[in-house]
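Appendix B. Chain record.
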Amino acid sequence: MSTPLNVGMIGYGFMGRAHSNAYRQVSQFFQRKYRPVLKACCGRNEAKIKAFAENWGYESYETDWRRLVERKDIDLIDIGSPNNTHREIALAAAAAGKMVLCEKPLAMNTAEAEEMTAAVERAGVPNMVWFNYRRVPAIALARQIIDEGRIGRPFHYRATYLQDWTIAEDVPQGGPALWRLDVDVAGSGVTGDLLAHSIDTAMWLNGPIVRVVAATETFVKERLHQVTGKVQPVGIDDACMFLAIFQNGSMGTFESTRYARGRKNFNTFELNGAAGSVYFDLEEPQILQYFKYADPKTGAKIESHLTGWQKIHVTNFEHPYMNKWWVPGCTIGYEHTFINALADFLEGLETGSPAQPDFRCALQTQKVCDAVLASAKTGQWQQIA
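Structure tokens predicted for this chain:
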């Protein structure tokens, strides 16, 4: 017999839809003790949040998040609203004893993230941040390969995250659809929006980043603001590149931009080690490329005429998460990463071993993001605690 888990969803945009789909689908594919119930959703525009509630099957809706947090029939608060709202909602939800799930990045800056982390830990409430790319089966397989020692000593990590949707100078900033271009709402540009994903993945696969040096650029300096109706300076970074040193001694390069013509959501990483390499491209999410140079158990080198990159089609039941989905050979998509993440969170509630990344883990990603932005201003290397 499953136990209902009453969900209060804040936000009805891109992430509100992705999270709501996960709550609706997870119990159909993963057998967990807790079964999410779409109890209530929240948004400031009553007409839109009412339509959202009806479409997704929420039992009720609110137009003030404070009322949602105060409701006795809500067990979990999911923060899917813009970045500048995360702190206040998380603090209130933790104080009310609610479980807290938060969209990434965790906060506008490290100070906010530290306050949020302290609040959920003080309250002792389960928490998680939706870095959903960890739950791409091919990326999870990369982590398994690394944990099995098949890469050996790591030397290089390189990541790219490229898009092209802000190239036109007449794209405005601000408002419900384009708040990511408004620094007062987003906190940063590609660093917090895209590189936060790359940084989280990198540290999950290759360990902590301890030093960075960075450069950023804002190509269009002014844009019309949809809220004020005025042409205003653009405060976010359109592009960012940085070098990193990992705690294990390996070196990293990271690049992100919204000005890569033809790239819509191009997210890649490669890790090179003494015994092998792995490479992933989100545009082919069902594929992990693996290069085997030496046997991890014996250290014996592979015969040179047999070496080469291996394309692993990550759909077998033996691969992470795939035994919960379709038959081998059938792929899953973007929306399934959120379902997989939620399944892990629910499992953590059962076992008492919290799903990652929690707020404290996401705090470390926030520290790296802030160090990147600080380095871009000074041109100097930044140490990360």
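Further analysis of this model is presented in Appendix C.
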